[in-house]
Amino acid sequence: MNRGHLIPVERLRAAVNDLMLGFGSEPREVALVTDNLLQANLTGHDSHGIGMLPRYANAFLEGGLRPNAHALTKLDSGTLLALDGQAGFGQVIGHEAMELGIARAQAHGSCIMALANAHHLCRIGAWAEMAVVAGLVSVHFVNVISRPMVAPWGGRDARFGTNPFAVGIPVPGREPVILDMATSVIAQGKTRVAHNKGERLAPGQMIDNFGEPTTDPKFGVVEPLGALRTFGEHKGFGLALVCELLGGAVAGALTAHQPGDGKQRVLNGMLTMLFDPNRLGDGAVFGGEMQAFLDWVQASPPEAGLSRVQVAGDPERASRARRSAEGIPVDDNTWKELLAAAAKLGRDPARVASLAGVAA
């Protein structure tokens, strides 16, 4: 197994900030992208963390990612927004889109926001977290335009992306519920993480290039590529279809319907529904019911080996607390890929390593 490095958060932040300068990004973009990626690592989702930067670098050099782009408003009718991300960093475009949607929902009670043509929006739970901080419920349907990586239920090759689905629910008196999941069994980035660490996948997660079951993560990383399976068999497939139709066709005006072109860019469309639950009735009443239900569910005796029943958002909060104190683990292969990306972008890999406190 590839063990790698355990890097303090602020040292890793400094290193990523330096690498980001190679994109020609303005200071605000550097800060938003860096923080978003580090938050993904902190929450335990290394698939969406700093390990994405080598792919971002390739997408930028190919012309598929546009630094310093901003969300362009195509339609604004108060409670309906249609935005174009102009292939800009998803961390910036997503942040700007959510700011607009949140403002509309606070003013009108609800907002439906369609976002098209954003480069990789990264961890969709980050956008649900923005909404709950503002006291809003949010629901997100997302599609992925890149090389197809997920097989339909009953199929033997990849036909669409990992198509994330997320929901954020503020709960009075408790931490919010943040459901954030790919509609595939695992996110594509988790195959990269496993491959870089020299680990195997669990059975039932992936098929190889012949459509046969495999536990080798290389089929999600290097040619010839295979395909991930949807979670929950036909049920996950059904939700993936809904994400493609709403996040892709409706919000993004672009769906996955052809083989990949070999490009590294990842475009997302996202349909987001935001609303203020307090506008629907007595907040004290439904807030109390939320607390009662969650208390009831978590009072269930845990299975052997578990300390307690967790709800969506609990594992991420626990990981964030632990990694904030201990540092973020980065395996050797991912670290080498990061330094190679820095060199491609014209940054000094030795300086990036030094800022992280890692021997060159």
List the topology elements.
Layout lengths: L4 E3 L1 H12 L6 H16 L10 H10 L9 E5 L3 E5 L5 H19 L1 E10 L5 H9 L3 E9 L19 E5 L7 E5 L6 H10 L8 E2 L5 E2 L12 E2 L5 H19 L14 E9 L7 H16 L15 H13 L1 E3 L1 H13 L4 H8 L4
Parallel strand pairs: 3-4
Antiparallel strand pairs: 1-12, 2-3, 4-11, 5-6, 5-11, 6-7, 8-9, 8-10
Helix pairs in contact: 1-2, 1-11, 2-4, 3-10, 10-11
Overview of the structural elements:
This protein has 2 domains: 1-62 and 327-360, Malate/L-lactate/L-sulpholactate dehydrogenase, four-helix barrel (Hypothetical Oxidoreductase Yiak, Chain: A, domain 1, Orthogonal Bundle); 69-184 and 230-323, Ribosomal Protein S8, Chain: A, domain 1. 40% of the residues lie in helices and 17% in strands. The chain has 360 residues and is α+β, with helices and mostly antiparallel strands. The protein is built from 11 helices and 12 strands. Helix 2 crosses helix 4 (90-108) and helix 10 crosses helix 11.
Summed up, the helix count is 11
Biggest β-sheet: strands ordered side by side in the sheet: 2-3-4-11-5-6-7
Describe the biggest sheet? 7 strands, mixed
CATH architecture of the largest domain: 2-Layer Sandwich
According to DSSP, the number of beta strands is: 12
Residue-averaged pLDDT, rounded? 96
CATH topology of the largest domain: Ribosomal Protein S8, Chain: A, domain 1
Number of domains: 2
| Share of residues in helices | 40-55%
* Low confidence ranges: none
Order of helices and strands: EHHHEEHEHEEEHEEEHEHHEHH
Give the helix/strand class: alpha+beta
Tell me the β content: 15-25%
The CATH class designation of the largest domain is Alpha Beta
What gyration radius follows from the Cα positions, in whole Å?
20 Å
Shape: globular
